[in-house]
Amino acid sequence: MADTPDAWLYQLTTEAATNHFLSLGLDVGEIAKEAFSPTAFDAHIAQLKQKLLSGIGLEVLRGLPVENYTQGFAAAIFCGIGAHIGSA
Predict the structure, then answer these.
(1) In the chain, helix, strand, coil percent, each to 5?
(2) What is the extent of the structural domain holding 21?
(3) pTM of this prediction?
(4) What contacts 13, CB < 8 A, 6 or more positions away?
């Protein structure tokens, strides 16, 4: 895996999708993929789901300066990504 970091490393930006979701005034527990649409990430989500379920089983998401985010903002990002990958 060290020889092929592109197989498990992805630069992520989701601030626009997160801001949109938070502007709806919904609780993070109500997040659905329709309300969280990271357009720059849309094309990658199907590949990510396949990679997690049937491929190498992991991916490192970079580009999220979580130290600059509130707990609610970070939770919306992770729950939003989760809403695209599966269901609880």
Answers:
(1) 55, 5, 40
(2) 5-85
(3) 0.70
(4) 38, 40, 41, 63
Instruction: Count up the domains in the chain and report the number.
Output: 1
* Segment 23-81, tens digit of pLDDT: 989 888 888 877 887 666 677 777 888 888 888 888 777 778 888 999 999 999 888 88
Give 1's contacts (C-beta < 8 A, 6+ positions apart): 7, 8, 56
* Chain centre distance of CA 61: 8
Q: Are 71 and 20 in contact (CB under 8 A)?
A: no
Question: What secondary structure letter does DSSP report for 56?
Answer: S
